[in-house]
Amino acid sequence: MNEKPLLELSGLTKAYPGVVANDDVSLRIAPGEVHALLGENGAGKSTLVKMIYGLVKPDAGRMQMHGTGFAPAEPRAARAAGVGMVFQHFSLFDALTVAENIALGMEDAPKLRTLSQRIREVSDTYGLPLSPDRVVGDLSAGERQRVEIIRCLLQEPKLLIMDEPTSVLTPQEVEILFKTLRKLSAEGTAILYISHKLEEIRALCDSATILRLGKVVGHCTPSETSARDMAEMMVGTVLKTPTRAGKTPGDVVLSLTGLSAKSPSAFGMPLREISVEVRAGEVLGIGGVAGNGQDELLAALSGETLSAPGMIAFRGRDVSVLGPTPRRAMGILTAPEERLGHAAAPDMSLTENAMLTGAARENLDRGGLLDWSAARSFAERIISTFDVRTPGPGNAARSLSGGNLQKFVIGREVLQRPDLLVVNQPTWGVDASAAAAIRQALLDLAENGAAIIAISQDLDELMEISDRFAALNEGRLSPPRPAQGLTVDEIGMMMGGAHGMEVAHV
Amino acid sequence: MMDLSAINPILFVAGFLVAATPLIFAAIGELVVEKSGVLNLGVEGMMITGAICGFAVAVETGSPLLGFAAAAAGGALLSLLFAFLTQIALANQVASGLALTLFGLGLSALLGQSYVGVKPPRLGDIDFGPLADIPVIGPILFTHDIILYLGIALVAATWAVLKFTRAGLVLRAVGESHDAAHALGYHVKRIRTLAIMFGGACAGVGGAYISLIRVPQWTEGMTAGIGWIALALVVFASWKPWRLLLGAYLFGGITQLQLNLQGAGVAIPVEYLAMSPYLITIIVLVILSADKSAAPASLGRTFHASQ
After folding, report:
1. Comparing B142 with A290, which gets the higher pLDDT?
2. What total number of domains does chain A contain?
3. Is A74 in Cβ contact with B180 (below 8 Å)?
4. Hey, which residues 183-202 in chain B have their CB within 8 Å of chain A?
5. A488–chain B Cβ distance below 8 A for any pair
6. Which residues constitute the domain of residue B213?
7. Is residue A154 assigned to a domain?
8. Quick check: is A244 in a domain?
9. Of chain B's two ends, which shows fewer C-beta atoms within 10 Å, N or C?
10. Domain of A490?
């Protein structure tokens, strides 16, 4: 790395009331370099890139681009200087078309027709298929991200910042993205890449800077460092791999017989003839590309959508036509994928959120009157048991970072001693140590005799915690197979067969 | 007994173009405001303020056009109060809008005390020369004042700006997702404040059209709910300018028709006739507004830039 740096940051500091988000951070990126920025949730990665992109002004320190001072007052200035950014939470407008969205992110956008032409050219060049006339609201997560990437590429950036780009992508889409990024890097564009997924960073990045609590704690060359070592540098302690004792499963807790259900939403996937049994003490992992019936399966199990009689039996009793509350009372608990708005009410406090799902099993209401002090101590118990970092149970769910809220919503269900726990994407967007804690909690729960259904798109995770593995494909569930010794090819076949997706090599 | 032959179809059509104009102004202004993601329920208050500002300045200067300019300024000034409350003080938009209406009604009554019974100067019709002599079409289309044509032009211009220009795209983007627009570096508050002022100016002109041309005189509360109809019209027109124009003409047409029917002595109680334009407009627009998806996604939500 003897090249003259494209971007050099020295001594950047930014403090918010009560927290120093960045403390004396220095960083160099050479042209064409793919540089990873690693750190747990709240380590200050987002603040750092926001300063580079002109959304936040540093309190101290300076930035240099091509050896001259660089202090963008607003994103416009950063874009003019050749910095492009793909956001973690997409900054797109659902009601507008692809071309209109792209025009909004450009300084001198050409006429829409010319722009559409250029969008087609760029999407061909970089292998990112995208039609400029489609309305963004109808696009998949991967396609939305392409809109953002193409918006950046059209401005020929010298530095492309990507904030957790793969957290919403299927393995297939990740492959496409990586090809694009390698091509860009070969053309001399530097890439600053933020991610939790260490294997991805090892595959893609030339160098890495690791942040912990706002400070740079180390640098490494990802291809020569193991994922475990990187994770330990991020966390600052030795990482525990979830452990489980092999145990023979107990009685059948849940049995699905020909479960079929229409999707509640227009763009959803109907469930088709799902039959499976889950036993006490067993973790059934369910994989599959997003949108193949995961949300619908969770809704059918939680009771949000009711099924025809005889399809769902819990401990031998038909629960198909029971709603969520009676099912909860019986011990069927669920934690849906979407944290804000589905698993938790964003603007309500953690105490209120604890009350919402815990009322029945934790006796938080008596004859219709709410017992707030019991709810508060239940919320406090979740917070302490699952190391949720928040000032207290009175804080709104929205104020928690994604990983912390995820620990809260999973912890809330685990502490209610479920007989069957269904989780969807339990560690989505959660950093390594929090993810390990959540997985361990699920395994401990199974150890104590609960049945677990873990729906996830993270195959590594499923292989780590599942006893048996099955895949959802177009609303059908493959017959489950023992997870141990399952090969990548076999999983790929289960997830869609030869004509389906290619599984990322784990 | 009723005598429908007393209704002259040519005068009737020409009349409803006039009756619809205040509504067109108020509604197109509110459409722009709502497209930027702000719900301003103060249309009625800005209209009545515009009505008295326009009336007073026209009387004092003798120039109706200066009156209309003053009406626009008055409406925009009052809307700045709303902009301050909602964009800077981050107050609730619904409450602020209602307060604005009540404030405008009171303020206009105060300002208008000495103008009750005064006759304003008349704004002449545009001279289209021989065009006005064309049978039927001439008297319907070419015998109006400039403000009426300006209203139609404003609808066309709003449509074109929203659809074809970058300014329109940015406005829609801000109304669609203020967080995303902010992340891209657009000044959400500035854009919204400008939109609110535009809405205020339009409502003011609409109000002055009532006090200077349609009626023409000053009475307290003379806008009589047109501002509320304008608000409903924007929603039921699914935020589409041309549909809004159609709705306004429908309302104007029925208003004119019921006046003519009253004049012809139809045996229906006057109260029913008087409420019919409101009722029918709302019914028709409810039927038309099947696609609710057109609402700007950030409509009515307070924007606060937080990192």
Report:
1. B142
2. 2
3. no
4. 183-186
5. no
6. 4-288
7. yes
8. no
9. N
10. 252-494
